[in-house]
Amino acid sequence: MFRVRSSLFLFPTVLLLAACDRDDGIKVYQVSKPENMPTPAIASPRGPQDMANTAVPLPPSSVEAPQWQLPAEWTEKTPGAMRRASFSAGPEGKVDISVTAFPGDVGGDLANVNRWRRQLQLEPVDEATLAQQIQAFEAQEITLKFVEIEGADTATLAGWTLHRGQSWFFKMTGPKEAVAAEKASFQAFLRSVFFHS
């Protein structure tokens, strides 16, 4: 009886050891993160009014880019991660022009304009004041909103539109005198903007 019980005890142990030596063909793979994967948005410490600072831009493949006519005197630059297009103008290229696209309204007109005002060290405005500053600007087949902001030494001109759930921003910033000299070219640029659909 002892021998039978010992055999029964040893049999599972032998099976277990045999299984440890078996090659089940298990392989380990390392998957690298895609290079162009967008970085998630991080909550802004200033709250919802500053969400445009941290919103993730739309990936190029998901956005129908508008067309435009570039002023002859502007220089095209390589756009950064947040930009769809980038240009320089004026003396020594000190005037910067950017084209960006984001999902939704990016916090709304008041939040966006006040963000640009803060960049020029200006106090925010309220809805009533903003309504007096924003102009409707007719382009090819769309209407943009347009605003001019002047700081102590720097000025910003901006036009924007919401198209198919995507906000497009066209912004010019630089020394006040240089921006004033480029205003007509910037407005001609805005008038040339159109979408295929």
> How many helices in DSSP terms?
4
How is the largest sheet built, in terms of strand order?
Answer: 1-2-3-7-6-5-4
Order of helices and strands: HEEEHHEEEEH
Shape: globular
Could you please describe the fold and organization of this structure?
Helix content is 27%, strand content 25%. By secondary structure, it is α+β, with helices and mostly antiparallel strands. The protein has a seven-stranded antiparallel beta sheet with strand order 1-2-3-7-6-5-4. A hairpin with a 3-residue loop joins strand 5 (143-150) and strand 6. The radius of gyration is 29 Å and the shape is globular. The chain starts with a helix and ends in a 6-residue tail after the last helix.
Quick summary:
The chain is α+β, with helices and mostly antiparallel strands.
Tags for this entry?
seven-stranded antiparallel sheet; disordered N terminus; alpha+beta; 197 residues; 25% strand; 27% helix
Fold topology:
Layout: H1 2-21, E1 75-77, E2 85-89, E3 95-103, H2 109-119, H3 127-133, E4 135-138, E5 143-150, E6 154-163, E7 166-175, H4 176-191
